[in-house]
Amino acid sequence: MTIGELKQIPPGSILIAGPDGRRVAGNRLDELVEELHDEPYPNPADEAARRLIAQVCSPYRTRLDDGSWDEDEVFLEVGGRTFHNALSVRGHFPKVGFLSHPHHLSVAACPPRWGGLIGTLITDGIGAVEAPALGATEPVLDDAVREQVISGLLGTQDGRMPDDLVWNPPVASPIRVEPLPAANVRSMAGLVTVSTVARRGIGIAVVGDKPEDFALARLWRLTYGSGVWLPSSLGVDDEVPPSSLRVGLSEIEQRYRQRSGSLLLVSTSRPVEELEALQARLFRSPIRFRGEPAQPTVSACTVTELPWGQPTRTHLAVAEQFDTHVTVPVVVDDSGTRTMAAPLPAPILGNDHVLPPNDLTWQVDIGWPDATTVRGRGLDGQEVFTGDTNRWLTWARSSRHGITYQSHRFDFVAAGTPIVNKLARPAVRDLGLRRWVEAKAREHGLQIHVSDAGHRGALLARMLGGRHRFVDLFSGPLLDALRALRPTSSSTNKAYPAGDGVALAHDQGVLTFEGFCARSSALDRREVRDLLDMALGAGVLRRGLALVCANCEEAQFQSIDRLGQAWTCLRCDTPGQLQLSAWKKPDHEPTWFYDLHPVARHLLRDNGEVPALLSAYLATQDGQGQRRVYQDIEEVEFTLDGKPQVEIDLIVYDEDVLTVAECKSTANLAGDKAGSRAEVTKKCRAAAWLQADRLIFATTAPRWNNSTYGVIRSAVAEFDWGPLGPPEVGIISGLGTMAIEKQSLAAPSIKPTPDPGGTM
């Protein structure tokens, strides 16, 4: 708030927060102005709000070499420990440069004498040319003018505005075109609104006359693209609301319905019961469209139930440069991280409408095709630069649109340097999930390592040709057969009563092709054959014979690569002949058996297939069978100075949702309640480090023990999540079966997170 705005407040009408936070009466304005002089009004509440938002969003952040921080620091507190800070980079906004035609063009604008709710609504919707007059009051509108105002604001009319809302420039022959442009287009010269639209977007209509109602609708519209404010002046409380209001809202609702989204009625000042009654009045006769349901997808909800994390985003960009394609060489490492081998071109603004001064700094968004970097979450900006980029070249951040950096260089720039050489040309990285987790760990002074089980999974993934093939094999229809290669008995008759396998020792067996088919009933024989051939080609399975040495009588598996008419015992090195006495049965020809690679055998011994089962489940939209492009890593251990802190079974990033998961094959998390609680607290700590959206506890057991639910609920509720708040908590049991059960736990301090995608 500026001093000029303060002076317009009638003395004694409101209480004002002074620079020291004390509230002073309006009649002390002269004293306050003298104290503040010509400086902007430093409201402590505004500063506190800015710092809170900086903690949960993604401002430009960086760590300094000596461990010190900029004086304008914002700390992120989690669990009583300071983990990170935000560095504020102040830029300059350009002077609004009006072109020649706006001076001669009539526009729709809020009249300066219109104040109150209607004046605020119109100024927010179409803008104003002149500042509001002192003492502006709520206008009294007749029904016809009100209908026109509502239609104009909701975009359902032919473009005509009431005469009172037409501003004509003070020239001899003003230009008037239809539909009449809004006044706020004058400040959009050279700019365009760009939106990333989600299929299941959520729009809101905010009912109420409080400042918080207006602020919620405006912020939702600026962020997500659709937020409508419905003050009482529009007739929302009438027994029969204005037809323009009902038609306009129905058209908005219909647009969301076409994208499988919905429209929510919400208020900060009215109870849900009132909203439900209003919904019945506004949508009792919705517009019908062919092939669409008669009932609109509108519901009433509270502010805390709003889906704040939806992926739809809206921002402003330079009109000619919001979709420029640039080709640069890249290097890809084993984590999928793409690193630019050459810097980007200089981000020169070619649009004269923007009229940038020499010290203007703008922001440049970089969007990679099929980007892998986890978006937002306050990543240290230095992590997105390549290793040979000067860290003081410019500021960068992992933003909601990809990677964003400041246009101007912040290192040494000599006087007289041409503008093109004053612009930053960084080379950046598109981080794979593993590299991103490493970067987030460094922010907290931590390191990550792959556990033994993780190394086994990584080795098998390399053998199979990729992580997705590993997940498909160890979570797919062959899993029961693979598990059968680890018999619980060393007796063949007990381990394989159907005679389709041989137990060579405890925990070591081999199966015939018929044995695989019998344990893979969902597949036909050709499909089993194809999967076996894929695993054989990768070396995860081996084909061979089950033989007995005539000398030491050791039963063993001899792979096809070692076989000949003469073969050598693996135990005593005695040569033997490939004859009936060695293979025993059948008496005509030996039968091929299939053995599992030792690494895969050890993986199954340690239940390493359970994270693969959860990975497959999450990747197929809760088992719907349609795989999406997503990333995951498993068996990650966080360490501090070499000491283990937390081990995470699975980390998944899918459609802007980051998931941390604990996977078990038992019905409990640990041996006792105290141990289970400690495990949940550790997973909460890791979820806070990574700013996860979802924390999942999954088991292959039919159901978790009853006490486990209470332990998880209380541990999550009592954890100090800081300003970020807790993630969604999911509980899954029966993993890998046809009877999977899932639920979300709710506790008093856990905010509900509606999931429009239906994935949890």
Question: Would you mind describing this structure in some detail?
Answer:
This protein starts with a helix and ends in a 16-residue tail after the last strand. 28% of the residues lie in helices and 21% in strands. By secondary structure, the protein is an alpha+beta fold. The longest helix is centred in the last third of the chain and has 18 residues, at 673-690. It is elongated, with a radius of gyration of 33 Å. Helix 6 runs parallel beside helix 8 (243-258), helix 12 (452-464) packs across helix 19 and helix 21 packs across helix 22. Mean pLDDT is 82; it is low at 68-101, 285-294, 622-627 and 747-760. The strands form eleven sheets. It has a seven-stranded mixed sheet with strand order 19-27-28-29-30-31-32.
Task: For the structure shown, list the relevant keywords.
single chain, four-stranded parallel sheet, alpha+beta, disordered C terminus, 760 residues, seven-stranded mixed sheet, 32 strands
